[in-house]
Amino acid sequence: MTDPLNQLLEFLAIPSVSADPSHKQDVERAARWLGDRLTGAGFAVEVVPTAGHPIVYAEKLVDAAAPTVLVYGHYDVQPPDPLELWTTPPFEPTIKDGKIYARGASDDKGQVFAHVAAALQLAGNLPVNLKFLIEGEEEVGSPNLVPFVKENRRRLAADVVLISDSPMFAPGLPTLTYGLRGLAYLEVRLRGLARDVHSGAYGGAVPNAAHAAAWMIAQLKDPMGWIRIPGFYDDVVPVAPEERAMWSRLPFDEEAFKAEVGAQATPGEPGYGILERRWARPTLDVNGMGSGYQGEGSKTVIPAEAFFKFSMRLVPDQDPEKIADLAEAYLRTILPEGYAMEVIRHHGGDPVVVPTSSPPMQAAAQALEEAWGRETVFTREGGSIPIVADFMRELEAPVVLMGFGLESDNLHAPNEKFDVINFEKGIEASKNFLRLLPLYLKGGQA
């Protein structure tokens, strides 16, 4: 059998960038590569075409009486730009100091392939029925995945959905994520003039879209970080005291956190610790903005147009559509006179919290503990995986978020990496979980 690490390096070398039309054939090649690996292990495989990029579906049903596990992941990756900041080429996987450097190494090729490698190693000795659903559009909002899930509920039926697209809390510390924040994302476009005009001839007499955008951005939050959108906090569920107590025992170092990202301060809502602000409080962050002349030197114009984009991370029980409605209504109240405004809603997702006491979560905790030799910790995650709520709603199955990456893996940034030890331990943990799940579902424990 081919070594799993070499297989992963081969997988990572395929530039499956879903957002770039020039890589469409590469995305399809990655889907076929995955399908070929699973076919060789005896899975029934279908590479399903969609209006965008293919979905790889595979199943191996060994016993009608055995539980069924559905593994979800994605094989598409973010664009590698800016290329000049990579120390090694993003699609020439390089192992250095025990780390694999490549685009997609941690997000999500390395993590999902740990489960594929576990299935390849178990081959004819699977203790459960195993299904894979691996998409090629996660990095562009998964536009075709939910329709596929809705149309294939019976085919995808499972006792648990297993996902590895999240981080461990610290190196060597096995971690299960039990909560994800939701997301609402808006883009605002302003126009105050028919065209850019001369700042000397027209200055002081016409609207300036850049000024308007800056002023509106400043009205979104107060100086302490409180979001000013009326009704924004109405449905927020406070964190339980036992959760705060659990998080207080985690090995979190604020100074190390600041050093990791190069921050001089950690601003945010007063009265909440950093972990609570990252995991269990809603946020609003401007993600991009632009207007006017941005080239070399000077150009004395008043810009006719401006734009800004902002994301709102949501917590239970905030509804993304309701929050987007509230935000848009507020934007209209703060829009300065003399501007036309267009509000564009981009992809979103519901927040999720799953019980840590469920049999699948307890099986996963033991599986990780056996692999790493340390007690598993439970954390929430500040990011969003919108499909998790869809799986829970459409398949009525519990979800286990078993992450093998690290916060420091440079996801979506240059020099993305994945520790070799985490890949190897991930394979071991995946095999452990498949072995332990039937015991836990029967009410027992290994």
From TrEMBL:
Keywords: Hydrolase, Metal-binding, Protease
Alphabetical GO biological process terms: proteolysis
Record flagged with keyword Hydrolase: yes
Coiled coil (UniProt feature): none
UniProt domain Peptidase M20 dimerisation: residue ranges: 178-337
Gene3D superfamilies per UniProt: 3.30.70.360, Zn peptidases
Record-level Gene Ontology MF annotations: metal ion binding; peptidase activity
The protein's name: Peptidase M20 dimerisation domain-containing protein
Organism: Oceanithermus desulfurans NBRC 100063
Organism phylogeny: Bacteria, Thermotogati, Deinococcota, Deinococci, Thermales
